[in-house]
Structure formats: C-alpha cells, structure tokens
Write a structure and sequence with these properties.
The protein is of the alpha/beta class. It is built from six helices and seven strands, in the order ααβαβαββαβαββ. Helix content is about 35%, strand content about 25%. A seven-stranded mixed sheet has the order 3-2-1-4-5-7-6. Helix 2 (about 35-45) crosses helix 3 (about 65-70). The radius of gyration is 15 Å and the shape is globular.
Length: about 190
C-alpha cells in the first residue's frame, strides 16, 4: 500500500502523506485516505456530478480534492480548520502536475460549522474529521441547503464512524467499499425533491 501512496505522490507532484496529530477532542487528526480507495470511490459517482461543486470538509493537505480533480471534477473546495494544513494544501496547488485548465481549487481556513455551502454543490467528502456532535451539526447544514435547493446530494464518508448521523437523516447507502468485517467507506445519497 505504501508503494502506491508514494507513486501517486510523485505522479501528482504533491506532499500529503505525513500525519498531523490533533489535541482537540472534537476535531480529529489529519491523515490522507488511500489514493486507491479515493480513486475507486470517485469512479462510482454519476458522471453529471462532475459539473457540480465537490466540497471536502476537513480537507487537510488536499489529497482527496487532487484525486477528485484527477477523476474529472472541476470545482473543488476544501474546508479546513487548521491554518498550517490549508497553507500546505495551497502550496500543493502550485506543485500539482496534472491540473486540467478547466478545473479550479479553493482551500479555505474555516470551521465547518460556519461554512456557507455554495449553490450547485453535489458532493461532500469526509474522512472522519470530527466528533459525532459536530457531524450532526454539519449534516443539518447540508440537509437544510438540500431542502432549500431541492437538489440531490452525495456524501462520501471514509472510515464512517458516525454513519448513523446520515442514515437517521434519510440518506440512503448508494455504495459500500469494504468487506463483511470492515467498512472502508460509504457513499450516501439523498434525492432532491
């Protein structure tokens, strides 16, 4: 697995491998999800989503968004609370070797609880970034936007520790990555009205 991680880091020209610990009990440490898992998950999404905003909540150094861009998504937004990680993600934009001219990255240093969801957002990505309480509040924000717009929403959740938050809010499992003993990731969908 580490061989693939290093290979994709070189292919993309970015640096996202190092883990950053967090002393905050509500916001968890930074670690990039596996490149192979990310690229596989993004293939499972409907093609029309590539014309919508792709938002990574707890974006860290940006790995998931670079994989999303590589997979054909054009409007990529990272929301990260840690200023140091946002600075690294912005440095990675300049180093990213495979950027397509039609794509656009934006990394913001902001608390996910205060993030204003832009119009035309179709995909949200999480790699278990924070506690269940924060996840519930973020879900409420996303669902309120979905109700307001009447649009379909997809949630990609890697290491889905609090999957019940999404299930209880009426999101259906669209795809499961893993086996009978371990769920690596889930893609949830909530249809528009």
């Amino acid at each position: 697995m580490l061989r693939y991680e290093g290979r994709y880091e070189r292919l993309f020209g970015i640096k996202t491998m190092q883990i950053k610990k967090s002393d905050d009990e509500q916001n968890f440490h930074y670690q990039g999800a596996s490149y192979l898992v990310l690229l596989d998950l993004f293939k499972k999404l409907p093609e029309y989503l590539k014309n919508k905003n792709f938002v990574d909540i707890g974006s860290g150094k940006g790995r998931a968004l670079f994989c999303a861009e590589y997979s054909g998504f054009n409007s990529l937004i990272g929301v990260e609370l840690d200023r140091e990680l946002v600075d690294i993600a912005n440095e990675n934009i300049g180093k990213y070797l495979l950027k397509r001219k039609e794509s656009h990255f934006k990394f913001v240093c902001e608390n996910a609880l205060h993030f204003v969801i832009p119009e035309n957002t179709g995909v949200f990505y999480f790699f278990n970034p924070f506690s269940e309480n924060i996840m519930k509040e973020v879900e409420k924000n996303i669902s309120a936007r979905q109700i307001h717009n009447g649009s379909e929403i997809f949630i990609i959740y890697v290491n889905p520790q609090f999957k019940n938050v999404w299930e209880n809010a009426g999101y259906e499992t669209y795809y499961k990555e893993g086996n009978s003993r371990y769920t690596e990731a889930l893609i949830f969908r909530k249809k528009g009205s």
